[in-house]
Design goal:
Chain A: Its cofactor is Fe(2+). Chain A: It comes from Streptomyces bingchenggensis (strain BCW-1). Chain A: InterPro entries: Fatty_acid_desaturase-2, Ferritin-like_SF, RNR-like. Chain A: GO terms for molecular function: metal ion binding; stearoyl-[ACP] desaturase activity. The complex is a heterodimer of chains A (about 325) and B (about 100). With about 325 residues, chain A is mostly helical. Chain A contains 12 helices and no strands. Chain A has one domain: Orthogonal Bundle (Ribonucleotide Reductase, subunit A). In chain A, about 60% of the residues lie in helices and about 0% in strands. With about 100 residues, chain B is an all-alpha fold. Chain B has one domain. In chain B, helix 1 runs antiparallel to helix 4. The two termini of chain B are about 15 Å apart. Classes of the chains: A mainly alpha (about 325), B mainly alpha (about 100). Chains A and B meet through helix 10 and helix 12 of A and helix 4 of B.
């Protein structure tokens, strides 16, 4: 079907463009967009599509710019860990799609706006999945080419285990924090990598993860704005990560849960012979506090304030 | 020395928040993973964390003592959790008295 429309009765021919004005961006106030500005799911999906298109990049081209012989043992270890971690994003996106679908059906009659938020989230999961495929393949191909320990099919399948379902707000906040953790880690990696091609890959993937964080925050905010999901659940997940010995400490914790159900990538990072851990805990803490502000409107500045606020919201 | 009624208070509050009876909850070898599995109100460790928080908030309201529990692995026996709660209560109570 042609996207050009011409006025055949007049001359000269006027061609109306089907492209949208303005730079593509995430709809940060999705609840208002749906309820006050009258945006439809077709409108929302169009915005998702054009942002996705604007951010595409080629794994093949990125890999071509890496000088394999210049990679240090630390570079190779960082690539290997990133590749394994990224294996867990496909089950995350698959689960989000399935859970969103179930939530749409659950809310359709009770609160159609919440059903639309869930649908927008489920629809976006296809872009998330595709973008994460770039991350997984770029790092795993590079790890393979640079002679790192191969990822066995058993490990591949183990890392593909799908997370158990949970409350949708908690799920979205957990995913936002996972993206924050990944983005900060990749940002830290850039500081120690010398090869410009490899540095560019980490920079690109970190930028993608921040974009994903922004999407998760927007969906979570829309759920809180709907009045159907309490802010306390966003704070609960943040506290789970930020508390002493919390998830944010990942594989550095003395004791890790032995789960048979799924793999949390942050539990699986291996330092190897290097001392480098891309932790930057304070930066992650500040970004998590910033996400909570956007999602709930409640301002906190530290993990202690996150805990205090969560305890107050929980009540007795 | 912890106030004698605190232990039954914690047992009762936590059982309420878990949606279980004290007899169901405080069996000799039950772990936190078992509690999540048997509770009709819990899906995962976030619910467990919230049940502890509600219990701690109750202690703060009724006894004026703020208890903070550390992150506990899911294989921790519930009897150990109860002891940790009581130890923390005692520690906080002593600190508040100084």
């Amino acid at each position: 079907m042609s996207i050009a429309e011409t006025d055949r009765a007049s001359s000269p021919v006027i061609r109306r463009s089907a492209a949208s004005d303005g730079s593509p961006a995430i709809i940060t106030d999705l609840y208002d967009a749906l309820t006050k500005r009258g945006m439809s799911l077709v409108d929302v999906t169009w915005e998702q599509q054009r942002l996705h298109e604007s951010r595409r990049w080629s794994v093949v081209e990125m890999l071509a710019a890496v000088d394999l012989d210049s990679l240090t043992p630390l570079d190779r270890n960082l690539v290997w860990n990133a590749g394994r971690a990224e294996l867990t994003t496909k089950p995350g996106a698959d689960r989000l799609e399935r859970q969103s679908e179930a939530e749409v059906r659950r809310w359709q009659d009770k609160n159609p706006t919440v059903a639309s938020i869930m649908e927008a989230c489920g629809t976006w999961s296809r872009y998330w999945n595709e973008e994460e495929a770039h991350h997984e393949t770029v790092f795993n191909r590079l790890a393979d080419l640079s002679g790192m320990e191969p990822i066995s099919d058993e490990t591949f399948i183990q890392f593909r285990q799908v997370f158990p379902d949970d409350d949708m707000l908690r799920t979205l906040v957990l995913l936002a924090i996972s993206e924050i953790t990944a983005a900060v880690n990749y940002g830290q990696c850039q500081h120690v990598i010398e090869d410009p091609g490899l540095r560019r890959i980490f920079k690109q993937v970190a930028a993608d993860e921040i974009q994903h964080r922004n999407y998760f925050v927007s969906f979570a905010k829309a759920l809180v704005d709907s009045g159907e999901y309490p802010a306390k659940d966003a704070f609960a997940v943040a506290h789970l990560f930020l508390r002493e010995d919390g998830e944010l400490h990942g594989s550095a914790r003395a004791q890790l849960e032995q789960r048979g159900s799924h793999v949390n990538w942050w539990d699986q990072l291996e330092v190897g012979d290097n001392d480098f851990r891309p932790e930057a805990l304070e930066k992650k803490e500040q970004l998590i506090c910033g996400a909570l502000k956007k999602i709930t409107g409640i301002e906190v500045h530290s993990r202690e304030e996150v805990e205090d606020t969560w305890m107050d919201l929980v009540g007795s | 020395m912890v106030t004698p009624e605190v232990e039954p208070y914690i047992r009762q509050k936590f059982a309420e928040n878990a949606g279980l009876t004290e007899e169901q909850l405080f069996t000799a070898d039950a772990t936190l993973a078992d509690v999540i599995a048997s509770s009709p109100r819990m899906t995962n460790s976030i619910d467990l964390m919230e049940a502890f928080a509600r219990t701690a908030n109750g202690l703060r309201k009724d006894y004026g003592v703020r208890v903070r529990l550390p992150a506990l692995p899911l294989d921790t026996p519930i009897t150990t959790v109860l002891k940790t709660f009581l130890d923390e209560f005692e520690r906080e109570q002593k600190e508040a008295a100084v």
